[in-house]
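Pasting as-is:
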Amino acid sequence: SSIPSKSLTDPSERKIHPEDFIVLATIVRPHGLKGEVKVSLSCPGLDRLVTCPSLRLVKGGREIKRVSVQRSFLHPDGDAVVRLREVEGIDEAESLRGAYLAVAPGEQPPLPEGQFYVDDLTGLSVTTLSGEELGKVEEVLEYPANAVCVVRQGDREVLVPALRSVIREVDLKARRMMVELQEEIDAETAD
């Protein structure tokens, strides 16, 4: 049997797997009447979303189309409102509820030195400066003050603040992170 040529060339016919893209935001609902959408950001701030040259709309496991941000602003509730050039009117915006604004791995805009994408950190082996193996980064939690890397090895879990004073080195090629954890305060040494 042969594969229809359309499925090889039309991105809307290609099934997308979660590992095929990095979600930058999820469309929550339309905002206004002209096609703007309210989005829940998966990354801090709007910079990555606005500067991404190859943003894709993904829904139901399928790439709908490539889009670009015309304008955007942060909403007081922490979400953002985005006007996509390729989305026209409230009806199209309504049809996009639950869709992702995503980018393919490797197509993310470059970050300043010392900053990393969450996906780059997930899976890194973590070792202290003294050589103690702590495990692997399982996930990165975003908090208002700073992100926290959840490092697990078996049943042991260590929370590593994503701060330069704690994370001393990240080597993406070697897939490792060196950390300097603060000494724990125990009852005997506390004042």
